[in-house]
Amino acid sequence: MKNCCEMDLKSQYLEDVLTNLEEKNANEPEFLQAVKEVLTTIEPVIIKNEEKFKKLSLLERLVEPERIISFRVPWIDDEGKIHVNRGYRVQFNGAIGPYKGGLRFHPSVNQSIMKFLGFEQIFKNALTTRPIGGGKGGSDFDPKGKSDMEIMKFCQSFMNELQKHIGQDVDVPAGDIGVGGREIGYLFGQYRKIRNTYEAGVLTGKGLSYGGSLARTEATGYGLMYFMREMLKANNITVSGKTAIISGSGNVAIYACEKAQQMGVKVLAMSDSSGCIYDENGININVIKEIKEVKRGRIKEYLNIVPKAKYTENTGDIPAIYKIKADIILPCATQNDINLETAEIIVSNGAIAVGEGANMPCTNEAVEFFIRNNVLLAPGKAANAGGVATSALEMSQNSMRMSWTFEEVDKKLESIMINIFNQCKHADEEYNLGANYVAGANIAAFKKIAEAMIAQGII
Ligand code: NDP
Questions:
Q1: Whole-model pTM over 0.85
Q2: Does the C-beta of 247 come closer than 6 Å to ligand 1?
């Protein structure tokens, strides 16, 4: 990753902020990466308002979380052994509404990853046009191989502390990697027990029997494809008839695949952290759902049902899936999945578009390479915002004590995603960026956040 002195910056204020940020957060590479991507792409707006922003220390305040909570999570496994994990909640920016963002349970979780996700969430949430601020949380707990009872015990212990810091008007967590409907259920149950209140809007991604919204499960993946369709349309390309590959086989990947197929796209391959499957007839998404959502198994089990498909184990730095040729690339697994070397392979295979279902799946160098090579790039904080937007719709339904049909929620999701794409396009055109929707998304979101922060004074 380039340090700020190696970047070609025109704003002295921006350079000073980045230098200070690097000194203060030297051991947080993911956080630095996320902030650098945003701040360097919004430079045209900073230059226009340099004196004002500097006087208000706007950028210094933007990059400093309002609050970071870190806590001990002790739990007892099925054999009676005690384990201790670390829990986090980063309440990054509440200028636009209650903090909102998912919880991630994965062994790689640390403060840098929590801060990068929380920072990105501020921008994503602003783009949804819903009244929600940015936050993120999670734990270095590894759910893989744990029994249902162990998952429940961990969730209960995690909530014993988290409940002190959240509330439907304070901070509203949801799912992310390793946290799906089952975990949200256990977390909600414990919150209700401790607080002795039925506060449905305190968590989103709930089950339908206790305040969840129809289409929330599908929302991130569906939203990603609505954004992709709009982006291609704006560049005179039709989505139907294209081929795609999707990294990951979790919540986002599964519903991106389902919507892509509904749009007439042939999805050739999907993956998990072990390797990828290739099915020349197009992935059978019902088989993937059965393996991942029901059995919680590994993707190579696809071959037990579809023996003609091929499985390739990941070896080396480049995930096997990205060596497969396709028109549309949908990274829906985790951050920094696509580095410059992988991006070079994708471009040489003739891809026309990349849609970031995951958060920050491409390194900054990969993003620059795609844009330079005219690959249309749908940035995560815009393209995967359908999940949090539908979470906000779930909160609205909870407040009104009513529920909308699947079709109603899906329609609202679609119009939100069209609106988000239009915001990116408008900023891209206003600043003459040449179909750079990464910068377009950052600029459109930043303007809203800056306005709300400035209006609320120095806090
Ligand atoms: P899930 O836990 O449902 O699925 C994650 C998938 O990614 C799994 O297939 C997993 O494989 C794979 N994966 C996870 N970590 C790694 C890794 N280090 N290397 C390779 N593969 C990995 O998570 P989601 O689908 O919910 O989230 C996926 C991405 O989308 C994340 O970046 C998340 O932040 C983002 N996102 C999610 C939203 C949501 O609504 N759920 C909303 C917006 C963004 P394995 O099982 O082998 O670990």
A1: yes
A2: no
